[in-house]
Description:
By secondary structure, this protein is α+β, with helices and mostly antiparallel strands. The protein has twelve helices and nine strands. 49% of the residues lie in helices and 14% in strands.
Amino acid sequence: xTDNSWRSDxxxxxxxxxxxxxxxxxxxxxxxxxxxxxxxxxxWRSAGKLGLLLCSIPEVYGGGGGTFAHDLAVFEAQGYAGDxxxxxxxxxxxxxHYLLEYGTEAxxxxxxxxxxxxxxxxxxxxxxxxxxxxxxxxxxTAIRDGDHYVVNGSKTFITNGSSADMIVxxxxxxxxxxAKGVSLFIVxxxxxxxxxxxxxxxxxxxxxxxxxxxxxTDVRVPVDNLLGGVEGRGFGQLMAQLxxxxxxxxxxxxxxxxRAVRETLRYTGERRAFGHTLFDFQNTAFELAECHTIxxxxxxxxxxxxxxHLNGKLDASEAAMLKxxxxxxxxxxxxxxxxxxxxxxxxxxxxIARMYEDARVQRIYAGANEVxxxxxxxxxxxxxxx
Length: 386
């Protein structure tokens, strides 16, 4: 990782610590995690002890007290390590920020400290079988009944779904009000009658991640667990936080591109054919030169957006550009690096093959890249009409 404007010695140290953590706890044990389709809680606790969880949450709530740059250093390190199975981006980069930004003091104090240690694992419940990028179309309901809301519905593609102790759940408190009827709830899943985990989904990649289907049948959620205490604000809260979520995905993509180039440079420098290393062939050298250039220019764009975000100036359109561009380029670079590995690039014992599997979904979640282009186009149209 090279120096750039948003990195300090401290964030660089976090990055190096995180790379070592992911290599030791996740990558080196991937066969175990893949087989059981979840990562053991001990790994989360280890991350908590190292200070790699909730880096930017204030110390008063058990967090690291840093800026979001510290969190992004962890997520870029995960991309560089080459395995995205640990749902740390959701647990640490997404869920706690909903609580910090919109939660009551009691909600923040109740959940954030235990999340920072890894004792409580978080998830977010947005996507449903019939509603992905179109969050206004969710059908899960939360109807007030005295001191509780009664929740009914289902969610799918939920990261940390079978392991989570709590979930920030999107539901309709007013089913007839469209976006204005969406609210967010903190649901304690540890003792939750009516809540069930369905399938842990069999995915193309990220095999160690317990991405799951969840269902809620007459689940009673205390009124105090309405995020922020006011109904109807959920859609706006989701839209505001998606900017930061897309930055997280882009950081992982940047790290992955850097690692793919490095792994392939090493491989082609060692592998020989016709009396020469593979890198001695002009095609190989030119391919890697192009991939290195793509990875470097993407990192520059990432740095630019991180600086803007840390200064409160990153808007939805530029975040969409970043997410779409870097994840598309991640898939391109990793694919080209697989090709340079030849048949070995298709073998899962090689890191590059598992990176190839993990990369594809980056263009889908946090808003499909087609939706990102729609956001960008809408922004361009507004400027033209203005």
